[in-house]
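Summary for the steering committee. One of the milestones for this cycle was to obtain a three-dimensional model of the protein with nicotinamide-adenine-dinucleotide bound, which we needed before selecting residues for the alanine scan. The sequence and ligand used are listed below.
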Amino acid sequence: KTQYTIAVIPGDGIGKEVTPWAQQALEKAAGDAAQFTYVDFDLGAERYLRDGEILPDEDLERIKGTDAILLGAVGDPRVKAGVLERGLLLKLRFALDQYVNLRPSKLYKGVTSPLAEPGEIDFVVVREGTEGLYCGAGGAIRKGTEHEVATEVSINTAYGVERVVRYAFDLAMKRRKHVTLVHKKNVLVNAGDMWQRIVDKVGEEYPEVTHDYNHVDAATIYLVNDPSRFDVILTDNLFGDILTDEAGAVVGGVGYSASGCINAINEYPSMFEPIHGSAPDIAGQGIANPTAAILSAAMLLRHLGFDDAAARIDAAVEADIEELGSTTRSTAEVGRDILSRI
Ligand code: NAD
Ligand code: IPM
Ligand code: MN
């Protein structure tokens, strides 16, 4: 297969500024190896404020029919928090059963880490993407009264945990063969215990892969004082969200952090997006770093099997950062500099 349809959802804020560069990088890196047809989706705050629509069924169905999704970011200060995040972004992750949220962190030569002695940093967070506290199980009763009750319940199923655990061990086999489960099993004794038992069980099938465990609070320490200890970090939806922003900061900023929301059995399209948000504090200034979005395009190419094209983007980014990473550049300058190296 060489013809692919890519859904493009720039979304909000800097998502709109960085996504065109990711798309151009994708197109240029693919070269003659594949023909991509792009379908643009007008989804996000503007559409919602204009006609009240967040993710109409019709759009979702069209997205389901594509081969992959390139997404920028979602969220706007004019819209109540959660409306777009849940109604658009999480709805896509859940509807497309993107159970692996893959988030690599690598410290590139030329990037200044906030750590005095970062050492070599090269790990991947395998974050569960369809369960946990993100399910939306819960609610509010007696809202607005003194007796209000608000709940969010963390859903963890043996099926959902096992499939992401297997993904993490398979990934570790291709890397340095070490998995660290991060949870909070000293407090969350039900879910934590189940995660640990499933890791132990699956781990027996991978005798070459070592695995250990960190409580999430301790993991935040090790991420800053000894990040090179990590190879594959395996964790749940919320812990993974928090740890990957910290991981981004440790490798020089979330502007370098790409991600894939992956349906590993290819039943539905997978989605590739920077881990960062719409950054209202810098939106409109043309200064957002497009590198994370461009690296997400590389992850998309790798997912579709175009390893060489993906490697071309990775190499271009690596060379760009090594030479110019310490300079102050606009979004367009970084975009052009990287494109010229692909
Ligand atoms: P954010 O990631 O948008 O920004 C956090 C900080 O990082 C800000 O100081 C921002 O300026 C900086 N930053 C982010 N991306 C950058 C880039 N490419 N280059 C340079 N600096 C960058 O997180 P936030 O401020 O907590 O959230 C803003 C909005 O984005 C909210 O509505 C939130 O819900 C949403 N959000 C969406 C996604 C997503 O779509 N995947 C992810 C995170 C947050
Ligand atoms: C991310 C974001 C999302 C998440 C939000 C916007 C729903 O923070 O992609 O990291 O929590 O997963
Ligand atoms: Mn996040």
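Key point for the committee: The pocket of nicotinamide-adenine-dinucleotide (ligand 1) is lined by residues 14, 73-75, 85, 89, 254-255, 273, 276-282, 288-289, 292 (CB under 6 Å).
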